Each structure stands twice: as structure tokens, then as C-alpha cells.
Amino acid sequence: METSDPMGTTTVLRTPAEETLLKRYPAEKASLPGAPAVASLRDGAFAAFEKVGLPHRRVEAWKYTDLRANLRTIAAPAGAPDHGRVQALPPAVPGDGARRIVVANGRVLADLSDLAGLEPGVSVRSLADALTHADAAVLAALEPIAEAADNVALAVNTAFMSDGVVVTIADGVRLERPIEIAHVTDGETAAATAVRNLVMVGAGATATVIETVESTSAAAHQSNIVTMMVVGDGAAVDHIRLQLEPFEAVSLTTLTVSIGANARFETFNAALGAGLARAQVFARFTGAAATGAFRGATLLSGRRHADTTLVVTHDAEGCESRELYKAVVDDEAKSVFQGRINVPAHAQKTDARMMTASLLLSDGAEAYAKPELEIFADDVQCGHGATCGALDDDLLFYMLARGISKTEAEKLLIIAYLGEAIDEVHNEAVREMLIHRIEAWLGKRVG
Amino acid sequence: MLQIKNLHARIGDREILKGLDLTVNAGEIHAIMGPNGAGKSTLSYILAGKDDYEVTEGEVLLNGVNILEMEPNERATAGLFLAFQYPIEIPGVASMTFLRAALNAHRKARGEGEISTPDFMRVIKETSAKLNISTEMLKRPVNVGFSGGEKKRNEVMQMALLQPSIAILDETDSGLDIDALKVVSDGVNALRSPERSFVVITHYQRLLNYIVPDFVHVLSDGRIVASGGKELALELEKNGYAGFVQDAA
After folding, report:
1. Closest C-alpha to B37, from B235, B186, B246, B220
2. To which H or E segment does residue B32 belong?
């Protein structure tokens, strides 16, 4: 298939991956869940994808993560998972005490999910059901915030989304137990999934939402997970995503969040898996005097590629945001950070600080950082910083001079380096699990 | 204990040590004094194994073993300790984690298992009490936000924990007021023993009032140009290095 570019001077060939998607949608749309209103939403999203195709390096937002070049093939839609294998997967966060809801191969598995005794004011449903019943609130919630509106990964997700979790927490409910959405891809052959979760937290409510992304095998699975959150006025929400897939996998995750007045929202992304990963965060402060913290840690080895893309809009007065992303990059891996903070003219008294740092452990490792601030208000405090470097020889020598081996010294320094971001995670079980994973990763490093 | 024989070393094209000889026997304290640029700090870094320097000739024997082929951590576990002139701040690494890692590295080298938490806490408590050092500073990351005096006390604390057979003190007196100097010196004196030797590198005679050396050496232009008893330090204090520098030239 060919399409004319806007200049009309050349014709652009579709890549095999694009061809596959173009064939798959018409063939599958009838079997995707949803009332006619949902079908037209899907059609619109797919048309948007069809117009631009997979994003590539000449598209600014995807400059460092060229999907047209790197996504050679599109995996077949995931078939039914083996419940036994999914159940046998050890919990990603031991001891977090969370209410676990399992989404395997793009389907909510009620039999493996902990849905008994839901707290009053809390509802957990399957998105597929809500789409089939054309639930008005759910349909409205599917509308992306402006920051994510033209995002291709989101558009493809909208077209193909098969299921996901819809969590609603009523005003004032203080949820003690974290809710964990466990995304699993099962099967020996590469499979593609598109999952959409909606989490709506009412005014004054508190909640912790943990998302894990895993596979039962080392197949080249492709997951496209979008989680849309609404944080009500005065609510306090912690969101954690643990990206743990095998290195064969491709992982696209997107978080969109709108944050109400006086609310507190914090998100942490741990990019520990997948060969090609992009974690996107689109956030908007919709009410005054809210605080938001956006943090992440990336560990990369081999030829892996991980991209963190963040857009935060302060669309209200007096909000505070903190952005801190740290990466450790070894071998010939490549880390990307793109962060943008928008401060429109009416968002006076904004306080925003964005920091990204990359630690390069080998000569072949690469890190790209693109911090951006767009400020139209005149009474704000905004700052950004980006650093990139190797482990400090003086620090290493000091530790060696006390008898500590090079491996152990590097381990302590790398954990300390990532600790700046990890220590801010409120959930202790998650912090412990992260340190444990980092130690295991360092243990596997070839000195 | 420590024998340095005909040591030549350079950094880049610049030769800094030009045939240095020094023998330190068990239980002795040697002071090395000398003008700026004589090679005093270079000597301490070379002994500890910093890889910025290239040793071109000579050998350094610690208890009969040439340590120049060893990694810095191996030298440390073999019994050599360098108290840094400027102790390094290590953000994010808790002091206790650091001390425990160092102690365990020494235990491992001796073929012992890792120290248990209660034993470790007891050792820390006993050592800090003996040296009159508050454990308060050990609640912070290594040297982060420490005053100059606290950093030097922390060096002495580490020395006491690791029980080296030879300790090199590189300008331990720099940046210390009299009170801190006394605490640090008392700590060093408490660690004196017939089995342990010290090499005290300093600019000024002042430190040697507190840590009284058995021998004093003048290092100038990469060589020991004069050696004597503690009275040599007093002479240097009175007349300066000029006479020795000229002799060497």
C-alpha cells in the first residue's frame, strides 16, 4: 500500500508492521468489544493512525524511538491464556498485600483476581463489559486529555483495546489496601495485546495503584497498555508501574492523569524489562494547589532501548510538580528521556522542577535527554537539569581503599544513585522488591 | 613491616618520585615532612594504589609481599590503610552500610563469614566509645555534610574498625582546629601498638606534638633527603625547608 506525503513529492511505502496493522483492524473490529458508539471511537482512532502510520525519527516526539525502524513486525493477537501458567507466576511484589486483578493476554481473568469483599465505595469492573453496555461514564472517561490527544500509541490502543480494569473509588474512601493490576502475556509464540485501564478516584479519597507488566515466557510479546486516571479534588493517589517483561518483548505503556485541586498524585515507573520500551506519562493539573511527583528508574543492559516521555501541563494556579528520572545504562543499551512542562499564562505560582540523570557504565552505552519548559506565566519557579556521566573514580577509589571490592563498591554506588528516586516510593514492599531486582541485575553484570 | 625500595613514579610525563627509600618496622611511627610539591601525597596515593600514577621502578613490600601488583582493595585487606587528606563524600551510601561492607571485605579476605548485625552494632558502639566519637554522624551518608573535623574523625573510626598493620595518615591535620586535632590524635594514639606502624605525612610540626614520631624524614623533589629523630621536626619548624631543598638540588 502507498500513501502520498503532504508535499506530494514522494510516495511513502508502508512498512510490513504498518501493513499488518492496516489489515488487522478491518478483520478484527467486529470481534472487538463495544456498542456502536465504541466502534465509531475505534474507527476514528484507527483513521488517525492510518493517516500518520508508525511514528519515526522525523516526528519530534519519537525522534529517539523510531517505531517505524524498530518495530519490524506486529505480533498476532494474543489467544486465550493458560490460567494455570498465569497463576503459577510468582507475585511481582511479594508482601505488598495488594488486591490483585489479573489481566492476561488482554482479558481480565476474574477467576485469578481478588474481587471478594471489595471495600464500600470501591468498584472494579471489566472494561469489555462496560464497553458492551456503552456505559456513559466509561465512554466519557476514554476521551484522552489534550496532552495525549495525538499520540499514536494511544490511538492504536483505542482501536484495538480488548479489555482492562475499570476501578472507581467513591468520594472520601480511604483505601488502605493497594490495588494491583497484573498485566501478563502468556504463550510461547509472540502475541500482541492492547489493554485499557480506567482508574477514577473521587474527591478526598486515597488509593495506591500498582501495575505490573510481565510474561510467562521469553517470547517476543508486544504489549500496549494505557491507564487513564482521574484524581479528584483533595484526593491522594500513588501510582507505581513495574515493567518487568523479558528482553525479547516490546512494551508501550501510557499513563494519562488529570489531577484535581488540592490533590496529591505521585507516579513511579520502574523500567526493568523489555528490549524496546517506551513509558509515556501525560499529566494535567486541572485544579489549583495540587502537587504531583513523577519519578522513575531505568536499568538497561545488552542492546535494550528504553524511552521515558513525560508531558506535564500546569493548567491551574499554584500547583507544584517534581520530576526525577534516573537511568543506569550498560553495554550498548540506549536510554531516552523526554520531559516537557507546560505552564500557560494563567498558571501563576507554579513550582516545577524536573531532573534527569543517566549513569553510563560502558563506552557503548548511550543516553539522550531532552528536557523542555514552556512557560507563559510570569510568576513561577521552574527549573530543569540533565546530567550524564560515569561512576566517579574518586568515590570508587575511596571505597576500594577500605577493602571493598570493585563489584561491591559499584553495587553500593549504583543503588545509591537510583535510591534518590526509589526512596521516594511510599510502598515499602515495592521499594524492597526494586532493590532486590537491582541487586540481581548487578549480580548478572559482567565485571 | 613496610619497605619502600628505590621507588620511582610519575603522572603523565612528570616524574614525581625519584628513587624513594623508606623502611618502617613494626610499632614505629614515621613522620614525612616536606615542602609543597615534594611528592608527599603522591607517595600516599601510590601506596594505596590509585591508578593515576605509574610506578616505573622500585618495589613496596608489605610484610614481605610486593603490593604494587595488588588492587587497592587487596592492599587494604592485606593491612594497609590510607587516611585521606580529603575524605570523599558518598551521597546515598549510609555510613553504617559502608562500614559494614568494609569490615566484611576484611573478614572475607581472612576467610571469615559476614559479621552478624548484633556483633556489628556492638563493634561500632565499642569503637566509637573508645575513640570518643559520637555515633550520631554515622546515621548520615558517608561524610556527607560532615565538618572537616568530623570527616577526619570518621577516618580514624574506620582505621580503628579495620585494624590495619600500617596506616598512612595523609595531612590528617589539614583543616583541623586544635580541639579536632586533639580528638584525632588521641584516636591515633589509642591505636598505637607494637604490631601497628604509622606513616604520618604532614606539612607542620604541630601535629607531631600530639602524635610523637620515632623518626622524621624530609621528602624533597621525590626523595628522602634527610632523616632523624623528632628533633628534626623542630629544626624544620624553626629554619624551614630551604636548607634541605637546596641540598637536594
Report:
1. B220
2. strand B29-33
Q: What is the three-class DSSP state of B47?
A: helix
User: Would an 8 Å CB–CB cutoff place B69 in contact with chain A?
Assistant: no
pLDDT tens digits for B5-36? 999 999 989 999 999 999 999 999 999 998 88
Give whole-number Cα distances, A380 to A320, A321, A342, A345, in Å.
10, 12, 12, 10
Residues in chain A with CB shorter than 8 Å from the CB of B98 are 399, 402, 404, 412
Number of domains present in the structure of chain B = 1
Q: Does B67 touch chain A (CB under 8 A)?
A: no
Q: Is residue A288 within 8 Å of residue A259, measured between CB atoms?
A: no
- Tell me what pLDDT residue B173 has: 87
- Nearest CA to A325 out of A370, A291, A285, A364 is that of A370
Q: With helix as H, strand as E and coil as C, how does A75-129 read?
A: CEECCCCCHHHHHHCCCCCCCCCCEEEEEECCEEEHHHCCCCCCCCCEEEEEHHH
Residues A271, A304 contacting (CB under 8 angstroms): no
CA-based nearest residue in chain A for residue B71: A400
Which whole-number Å values give the CA distances from A414 to A360, A405, B185, in the listed order?
Answer: 11, 14, 35
In terms of Cβ atoms closer than 10 Å to its own Cβ (0-12, 13-18, 19+), residue B53 is middle
Q: How many Å from the N-terminal Cα to the C-terminal Cα in chain B?
A: 31
A73-127 pLDDT per residue, tens = 999 999 999 999 999 999 999 999 999 999 999 999 999 999 999 999 999 999 9
> Radius of gyration over alpha carbons of chain B, in Å?
18
Chain A residues with CB under 8 Å of B49 CB are 400-401
How does strand A381-389 pair with strand A351-360?
parallel
Helix (H, G, I), strand (E, B) or coil at B212: coil
Phi, psi of A268 (to 5 degrees): -135, 130
Q: What percent of chain B has pLDDT over 90?
A: 72
CA distance A64 to B74: 43
Which CATH number belongs to the domain containing residue B217 in this structure?
3.40.50.300
Q: Give the span between the Cα atoms of B37 and B49, in whole angstroms.
A: 19
Q: Which domain holds residue B52?
A: 2-248
Closest residue of chain B to A394, computed from CA coordinates: B88
Interface membership of B151 toward A (CB under 8 Å): no
The DSSP result for B58-124, as a single string, is EEEEETTEEGGGS-HHHHHHTTEEEE-SSPPP-TTSBHHHHHHHHHHHHHHHTT--PPPHHHHHHHH
Q: Residue A74 in contact with residue A20, Cβ under 8 Å?
A: yes
Interface check for B92 against chain A (CB to CB < 8 A): the answer is: yes
Q: Is the pLDDT of residue A443 over 90?
A: no
A393, A399, A407, A417: which to substitute to probe chain B, counting the most B Cβ within 10 Å? A399
Is residue B186 within 8 Å of residue B160, measured between CB atoms?
A: no
Are the C-beta atoms of residues B56 and B45 closer than 8 Å to each other?
no
